[in-house]
Sequence to fold (121 residues):
Amino acid sequence: MISNNRIAIVNTATTFDDFKAKEALDLALIFASYEMPVALFFMADGVFQTKANQNPEGIGNKDFIATFKALGFYDIDDIYICQEDMVERMIEGELSVDGAEILPRTQFKQTLNNYDLVLTF
Fold:
């Protein structure tokens, strides 16, 4: 049964390239609203979602990234970002997700392996 499993949602898509990023966030909020333990992981191009001060209105999109501020309200506190992917994409400075833990790739993968259900977007 899913309710007993720890759920990892892995974000690999850029912020506004398609709907994957928004769908991943929506799913995390749905699981959390049913008090299911859920964590967010950002790797590959998904690390672009963690960059602060994005301007989606400039390309005609809605700012769903602002929803990251509500993660704590939903008790989504386990948020992990792959350090090497951030470095490769030159992402530094302020992040859009509060309390995210930036992990080296090896530790990132080890942490991800601790989850029972992994959903990749």
